[in-house]
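Support reply, case 0932

Customer input (verbatim):
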Amino acid sequence: MPDSNPETHVIDYRAAEQLLAARDPRGAVKLLDSVIAAHPENTAARLLRARAFFAAAQLRPAELEFELVLEREPDNAYAHFGLARTLQRAGRPQHARRHFRLAAALDPKPEYLEAARFDTPTDGDGPTP
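Our regenerated output:
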C-alpha cells in the first residue's frame, strides 16, 4: 500500500470506531484489517475488530480475536467479558460463565458482576462487547 503510514492507520482506526458506532461492523472490519496487517501487535485494534466481528454475528472470528487479546493481556476484563458474550451467543454457556467471572473478578463493574451471577442460560441478550 503506497500511502500506508502510521497516520493513515490512526485515521482508519478512528473511522472504524465510527463505523462500528454507526452499526456498520463489516465496514469497520475492512478498515481494521489493514491496520492489523501493519501493526499485528496492536491490542486496541484487535479488540475493536473482535467487537466488530461480534456485531456482525461472525462469532468464530470474534472468539479468536478476543482470545488473541487475552493471550497478550490476560488481565483485560473487557476482553474476558467480550469473549464471554461471544461464547454465550454461540450457545456455549459453561465456557462463557468462566470468562464472565474472570471479567467480574478483574473489574467489578455492575454489568460484569451481573453477568457473572447468571444462573440460567440466556438467549444472548444483554450488553454487547
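We compared this against your earlier run and they match. Two observations from our side: Helices lie at 6-21, 25-38, 43-55, 59-72, 77-89, 93-106, 110-116. The chain has a mean pLDDT of 91. Please reopen the case if you see a mismatch on your end.
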